[in-house]
Write a structure and sequence with these properties.
heterodimer, A: 111 residues, mainly beta, seven-stranded mixed β-sheet, globular, B: 110 residues, six-stranded mixed β-sheet, five-stranded antiparallel β-sheet, 11 strands
Chain lengths: 111, 110
């Protein structure tokens, strides 16, 4: 079955540590997105990519980095510069304007 | 930028009841979508509805673009309908980026 796989489901980060969240899709979608969700809030866009080797900052890109070396993969690195990284992170892909498909998310906690 | 406001923020209903969720947006949009997030965090697209009315089983949605609002109707609620319902819009030359409302949290009691 086609879909988006995010891993890990739960991740714990120590102060000053970089961590990378994985997002893989087998839907052949061109566009991929990373969102952050805080408790009781909507989704905020971190980064997006419409084609391989190209990506753009979203509304809250500071402290995050991404790469898009393959169409199927769009990993997100949460760097030590992100001072409040505890949140639920969602990856999505889409083919055009509709057909948004989300992964099951990664819950990141700073310990 | 465009504002997306959803109401009510919370809604508690008995199983079998009907409900109406509202999404207001402050500017013209290219696209509007409704999503459901279950209690475990999984988001599912319900409707792609920039205008008009669509129905899918017990759910239906109506968008009146000229008046800048959309409504999501849930009939004969079931406990599995619980979760958060989000409205999200595309605006201007946004390259398919969505602007999200804060959601309506729906709890259906058995």
């Amino acid at each position: 079955d086609g879909g988006i796989t995010q891993s890990p489901k739960y991740l714990f980060r120590k102060e000053g540590q970089n961590v990378t969240l994985s997002c893989e899709q087998n839907l052949n979608h061109d566009a991929m997105y990373w969102y952050r969700q805080d408790p009781g809030q909507g989704l905020r866009l971190i980064y997006y990519s419409q084609i391989v080797n190209d990506f753009q900052k979203g509304d809250i890109a500071e402290g995050y980095s991404v790469s898009r070396e393959k169409k199927e993969s769009f990993p997100l690195t949460v760097t030590s510069a992100q001072k409040n990284p505890t949140a639920f992170y969602l990856c999505a892909s889409t083919l055009g304007s509709y057909g948004y498909t989300f992964g099951s998310g990664t819950r990141l906690t700073v310990v | 930028g465009i504002q997306v406001e959803q109401s009510p923020p919370d809604l508690i209903l008995q199983e079998g009841a009907n409900s109406t969720l509202r999404c207001n947006f402050s500017d013209s949009v290219n696209n509007l979508q409704w999503f459901h997030q279950n209690p475990w965090g999984q988001l599912i697209n319900l409707f792609y509805i920039p205008s008009g009315t669509k129905q899918n089983g017990r759910l239906s949605a109506t968008t009146v673009a000229t008046e800048r609002y959309s409504l999501l109707y849930i009939s004969s609620s079931q406990t599995t309908d619980s979760g958060v319902y989000f409205c999200a819009v595309e605006h201007g030359d946004s390259n398919y980026q969505l602007i999200w409302g804060a959601g309506t949290k729906l709890i259906i009691k058995p």
